[in-house]
Amino acid sequence: MKFKRLREKMVSTQIEARGIHDHRVLEAMRTVPRHLFVSEALQDQAYGDFPLPIGEGQTISQPYIVAEMTQALELTRDDRILEIGTGSGYQTAILAELAFRVYTIERVRELFIRARKLLDQLGYHNVIAKCSDGTLGWPNESPFDAIIVTAGAPEPPEKLIQQLKIGGRIVIPVGDRYSQTLLQIRRHEDGIHTTDLGGCRFVKLIGEHGWKEG
Ligand code: SAH
Q1: Would you call 61 a catalytic residue per the annotation?
Q2: Which of 61, 132, 142, 179 is catalytic?
Q3: CB 3.0-4.6 Å disulfide test: which of 52, 60, 61, 125 passes with 65?
């Protein structure tokens, strides 16, 4: 009950108030129990207006950023989505509420195992997870209707854009190690169209087509 109230407040004061208008996104944010995606010691802070540590040097994104990125994916119920950077699995659960199937990739084994267990427990059976380098995408399951990258890349990985359907959208933070710009890139028949969604700050996307480790 307490957490449900905190969640309602989070959606009205942090998300709706800042202009997120997609009703399905708002409903998903009201539904997914965000406090279960952080350690017990941090549960009381789970609905605050900030990111939180999830271990292994990684973070669960601020609620508003999750909502903004999700809205920018322009999802429909039939969509198949690729997510790079499962982390806690919170964003994955939001996507699973909104789309047909979510393929998610995490490179850190401990996070992958924890997220998969929690998503199973919560009954998100339309999530397929694997532990590997997400900058290579998931060629066997491509093309996707939408791709979301929840770690900052030096540039949009060409490999991922190739795995989008024509008309598909990728939402990705691009920039240097310290600050990035959130981009929505739409693939067209004859190229791509990029929309700048504003500044943001994410942990590094590490991999063959991202930053090098260390
Ligand atoms: N969406 C997550 C945010 C996690 S932070 C959440 O809601 O909790 C970003 C995650 O991306 C980290 O867990 C990090 O380990 C992962 N990551 C970084 N580079 C990656 C790569 N190349 N492939 C898959 N995951 C990666």
Answers
A1: yes
A2: 61
A3: 61
Residue 214's pLDDT is 66
Reported as a single tens digit per residue, the pLDDT across 94-126 is: 999 999 999 999 999 999 999 999 999 999 999
Q: Which of 92, 132, 203 to mutate to test the pocket of ligand 1 (most atoms within 8 A of CB)?
A: 203
Residues 197, 202: Cα–Cα separation, whole Å: 14
| CATH classification number, 65-200, choose in 3.90.20.10, 2.40.50.40, 3.30.70.250, 3.40.50.150 | 3.40.50.150
* Domain ranges for the chain: 65-200
Ligand 1: residues within 6 Å at CB?
54, 58-61, 84-85, 87-88, 90-91, 105-108, 111, 133-135, 150-151, 203, 205-207, 210
Give the contacts of 85 (CB within 8 A, at least 6 positions apart).
Answer: 105, 106, 134, 149, 150, 151, 205
Q: Does pLDDT of 3 surpass 80? A: yes
State the pTM of this model. Answer: 0.98
Distance CA 202, CA 58 (A): 9
